[in-house]
Amino acid sequence: MPPVSSSPLAAASALEALHPRLWRGSSLGATAEPTLPSGFAPLDAELPGGGWPLRAVTELLGGPSGVLEWRLLAPALRRWWDDPGSSAGATAQRKQAPPNHRRLLLVNPPHMPHLPGLQALGLPASALIWVSADTPVQQLWATEQAIRSRVAVLAWLPEARPEQIRRLQVCALGSEAPMFLMRPDQARHQSSAAPLRLLVQPGEGWELAVQLIKRRGPAHEDWLALPATPDAVAPLLTTARRHAVPPSMPAPAPAPTERPHALARPVLHA
């Protein structure tokens, strides 16, 4: 029988050799599931798999602006629409799907979609489907059906309960299209089955301030500053105006007084 090493490093290596998908809580989670690059290198460096997870619900927490989420998600959605093979780990069937057959379904957005603005972000109007549902039950049903149809989904469900999010997460396991759930920032104190949760706020100038509330891996307490000036606006801005706060954006909110934990169980400062 070969000798057994008592070294912690050797023991960890032996475990990983036996279970390649074994994940240690002290390391950023690797994933065999497909991901979609976010278009922001600093963010991709902190996301397990290097991008937005597919076959999963991603939860974006913030105010009901209906603006910040578009600036954050537009690069990835544009890439998903234009390039069938853009996601890492995508199946051969998905890589061969023609991009013009893809759809982006919006459930209960806070404002009527502004098609010229979305087209300026590179999202073709022909890809967008707007679903107006009156009640939370109808909104949840529409979101679930959209996920089952394997289209990209952006759903604004401020009243979603933990058990309902778990149901959406189970549905998302069978889809290789991105699924984003928008909820108010107060929801960060609630449990959620979404494997990835982010807090999104306006940053300095045209930047977005993003904090990872939950991910597969160690806690990430710092804020990420992501340059998110729309391509159509950037050539019109002088250097001074590029760093000015957009007139429609509120001032950045203070950082939360609690420290986000990797498993979404907040740990209060002493």
Automatic annotation (TrEMBL):
This is Recombinase RecA. Residues 244-270 are annotated as: Disordered. Residues 247-257 have a biased composition (Pro residues). InterPro entries: P-loop_NTPase, UCP037290. It comes from Roseateles depolymerans.
